[in-house]
Amino acid sequence: MFEGWLSIIVFLPAAAALVIALFLRDDARVRWFAIGATVLNLVLIVITYIGFDRAAGGVQMIDRYEDWIPVEGLRAEYLLGIDGLSAPMLLLTGLLSAVAAFASWRITHRVREYFIWLLVLQTAVLGVFTALDFLLFFIFWEIELIPMFMLISIWGSGRSQYSAMKFVIFTLAGSAFMLVGILALFLSTGVDTFAMVSIPAEGIVGIPEKVAGSDLLIPAGVIWFLLFAAFAVKMPLWPFHSWLPDAHTDAPTAVSIMLAGVLLKMGGYGLLRVSVGMFQETNGFKVQDVAWLLAVLAVISIIYGAIVTIRQTDLKRLIAFSSVSHMGFVVLGVSSIVGVGGKVTDAGLNGAALQMVTHGTITGLLFLTVGLVYDRAHTRYIPDLGGLAVRLPLIAVAMLIAGLASLGLPGLSGFVAEISVFLGTYEVWKWLTVIGAFGVVLAAGYILWMMQRTFFGPHNERFDDLEDANFLDMVPVVALVISIVAIGVYPKIVTEVFKVGISELVRI
């Protein structure tokens, strides 16, 4: 079956990039064309999300082309589709891509190239979340490196080339482990497909079912760790996190939005789709065997990330280290896969999936507002700031909402995700969950400290001439605020879809 709908969504940004490369020369037209393309894609994605049949479940809107790589015996397919796990991630990517395009309208240096790479990046990420063939998934995973490297190294600040290269080296190292794991699976006896899931309507039996009774080339536990390494680096999970603060600090605002809001979620998505979904009935190994390790690494990431965040004096580095802490909640939720008395509940896993979406919108708004502050004050050094709320009330309110959501204030999206994680993991890992929950207290400390020093401290006369956000600045801000409040007040917008995907993934 080839419906074509998902292919249009995935490749529309790349097509827009091609149009810009071939036909557009005026910088203003390039900006508006790129913004228009991302907004159009967001509309298509919203239509797709609304059209996802929650009652039917399974993989929907399938685009399939067999033997698209003409290598005998490879059996790789062009296979796109969405289920309850990927549909919300698609929506998150569409929203943050449009936000990133709006956030880039002040770019004046090599404008055409910038938007070309930004649009190619969107296609790569959309491909990761829709690809259901493991080799195709890996290809999109790797394509993402090229535009991200270019965007940071050319349009970044500070040690931009160093940070971009560090990001690529870390990610490539993880990807190398992933490729070995993929090949080890495919070359095993009885595994003759790259399909990541089974699709009965298409006659596809996926890897999870194939490996259950197969004689694997290398032990299943080794394969799991090879694949997990790639996802741990991308999230990033302690101790693979050191590339993230550098990349965020030196990246342009829009790139930080995409990096924190979407690219880190590729790691969490891979953890759920692959590390959990493919290794529950494997001979001699299942993900439950290493759930304790996930829980320990998660708690270390949560507490370590929060403690280091408190010490930061640069706004971007503060938010970057907070991402290390908050992505730890995703892994903590996943660790609940071990269940109680052999029974797995969906609370922790749903919380982990929801945390990816909520963290994406919250961190996207934080980086967006930091960018607006930097455009006006020309500094991100917290001790040099102060009293900005007097001159920048709209920006201050937006960052306050994002900060309160980040520390888990009830009524905003961060609270819903974190409480779901804690409820799901407490019965499994009592003391680890209690220790992890202390990360919320630390988050309140660094968020409130940052807000007080930046916006509500003593007024600094050097900022008397600053102008608040204009209409174009506020469009993406309002979009993210609405998403944060909407999920906080009515989380079923997202959780109902995730529940369908998680229940099928772990066969609850």
Overview of the structural elements:
With 508 residues, the protein is an all-alpha fold. It folds into 2 domains: 1-285, no CATH class; 287-508, no CATH class. It is built from 19 helices and 2 strands. It has a two-stranded antiparallel sheet with strand order 1-2. Helix 11 (253-276) packs antiparallel against helix 14. The radius of gyration is 22 Å and the shape is globular.
Keywords:
globular, mainly alpha, 508 residues, two-stranded antiparallel sheet, 3% strand
From the alpha carbons, calculate the radius of gyration and give it in angstroms: 22 Å
Which sheet architecture does the biggest sheet show?
2 strands, antiparallel
- End-to-end CA span: 29 Å
| Total beta strand runs | 2
Shape assignment:
globular
Q: Percent of residues in beta strands?
A: under 5%
Uncertain segments are none
Overall structural domain count: 2
What does the average pLDDT come to? 85
Order of adjacent strands in the largest pleated sheet: 1-2
Structural class by sheet pairing and helices: mainly alpha
Q: Specify the helix fraction band.
A: 55-70%
Number of helices: 19
List the quaternary state of the chains: single chain
Order of helices and strands: HHEEHHHHHHHHHHHHHHHHH
